[in-house]
Amino acid sequence: xxxxxxxxxxxxxxxxxxxxxxxxxxxxxxxxxxxxxxxxxxxxxxxxxxxxxxxxxxxxxxxxxxxxxxxxxxxxxxxxxxxxxxxxxxxxxxxxxxxxxxxxxxxxxxxxxxxxxxxxxxxxxxxxxxxxxxxxxxxxxxxxxxxxxxxxxxxxxxxxxxxxxxxxxxxxxxxxxxxxxxxxxxxxxxxxxxxxxxxxxxxxxxxxxxxxxxxxxxxxxxxxxxxxxxxxxxxxxxxxxxxxxxxxxxxxxxxxxxxxxxxxxxxxxxxxxxxxxxxxxxxxxxxxxxxxxxxxxxxxxxxxxxxxxxxxxxxxxxxxxxxxxxxxxxxxxxxxxxxxxxxxxxxxxxxxxxxxxxxxxxxxxxxxxxxxxxxxxxxxxxxxxxxxxxxxxxxxxxx
Length: 399
Ligand SMILES: *Cc1c(COP(=O)(O)O)cnc(C)c1O
What we know:
alpha/beta, Aspartate Aminotransferase, domain 1, Aspartate Aminotransferase, domain 2, four-stranded antiparallel beta sheet, globular, binds pyridoxal-5'-phosphate
């Protein structure tokens, strides 16, 4: 049995706040400031010696793969298949470029869906434009399976739709893609730390994700990339940075890819952010992902039922029988203002255009009492129509 109350105690949560936005920016684990402070000390005292291992060094250079292995445990990725650094947008580009290079001759379609996050689609467009060949095809999420034709080179999907929370069946789509010789790229932005993922078991080729959502590593924390073991030596990195070179400190003029996942590294690792990630990952030691998933569904269903009973005018973004991630999304034309009114009451969710109110349910720090209080506040906001106040309708840059 997981002790969820003890887990909650490991996070700093401001008093009076019910935080239903850990799916966008996870809250700060209490251990993070000291861990970052320790690395500041290392920087101060060790200076450049910090990069090396042993002999008074701090081993910073090895952190991307070490932390990659720690994330790997949460997503079914064996040791040596994940590395960390750069942003998710960069990682999407990198994975897609490698996948296209591995894809069969004569195939040119990158298949994605209309539920994908825009940056993933923009990166695909940009890459296709640079290559001067290929085509990005987006279909409705329900139609992905039928769209896996012989023309498709790469299937590129975000497993959990950032707006509606709809979750793709990775195992089934992988089986179909493998049977047709299609290379796969999965974006786990709303999966890693949210539910069980078994990349190796499903046979996924590439996966990427970020660490500032459910993994709680802080604003701007680095992304990760997974490459299936059997593919690693065939991958030709499009972002052929010096730290992905077989011998970075030989300073050769020509690029020679590094061993295995090391070749997916690009440049200097963000050591301070990696220190935050390292401490944030401590929270996950001993978390049973099946128990986490069960609890996440329990909390989100409790919220869904509460809202249906109190605020029938807020419509669920998904039919009840569709599998979803760790969020509940509701629709209302005044969604933005309703979310602002809730935030003013200390219940933090967010809004995604055009009309989605989005609430994330992270068992690590949420309780039944939080869920019930959030439902009560939402009910009061709807009944009083306080969201009609002009102050709640003025759009800010980040929604
Ligand atoms: C959050 C998110 C991103 C963000 O990319 P960054 O480069 O980290 O800003 C990209 N893709 C998906 C699917 C996301 O959910």
